[in-house]
Amino acid sequence: QVQLVESGGGLVQTGGSLRLSCAASGRSFSSDAMGWFRQPPGKEREFVAVADRFRIIYNRDSVKGRFTISRDNARNTVSLQMNGLKPEDTAVYYCAVATTSERLRTGRADYWGQGTQVTVSS
Prior knowledge:
Blueprint lengths: L2 E5 L2 E4 L4 E8 L7 E7 L6 E6 L5 E3 L7 E6 L4 E6 L8 E8 L2 H5 L5 E2 L3 E6 L1
Parallel strand pairs: 2-11
Antiparallel strand pairs: 1-3, 3-8, 4-5, 4-9, 5-6, 7-8, 9-10, 9-11
C-alpha cells in the first residue's frame, strides 16, 4: 500500500524558514516525479514545486528564490526548504507523486499525502 506522509509544518513569523519532508512508502518512486502543492484558505490547491526523475526542477513563480525542492531516491523522500516565508504562503501543503512531471504540475497526481499546515504570521 502506497503512503505519502508529510511532516515539518507549523507556525512561523514573516521572514522565517520551515523545512517540509515527505516520506513515501509502498514502492520506490525513483522513476516518478515528486513534488509539492498547497491549498491556501478559501482557495483551490495549487502547484508549488516538482522534481522529476532526472531532478529537473519546476517551481511556481512566486516561490522562486525562496523555496528549494530536493529528493533522495535512496530514502524515497522529497523535501521542501522554505525560506523568506510570507503570510501569503499560509496553506496546507501536500506531497504528491505522478509518473511524469507534466502530469504532476497539472495536478494529475497518482498519490497524495494527507497534508501539513503551514501558517505564516505577519
